[in-house]
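Re: the 85-residue chain
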Amino acid sequence: MINPTFIRTFLDLAERKNFTATAKALHMTQPGVSQHLKWLEDYFGTPLVMREGKSCELTTAGEQLVAYGRRLVAGAGQHRRDHPH
């Protein structure tokens, strides 16, 4: 199963396109963001971003994961609204 925290990190990175800005926004270290990305890339067996220093651009696979990740996160939010604790 895909770790939802890694997906959220990836979605933020996809939006900001910057490892340092993503780390700061998520109160993480930049190596932590890189580790989440590496895990996802290893899991899917393909690069998700093209790195350019601390910045990046999405690959086609990365764009597909963004679409999937948004649906996943939206579904999780819907579940929480439907089933209050």
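Residues 38 and 70 are 19 Å apart (CA to CA).
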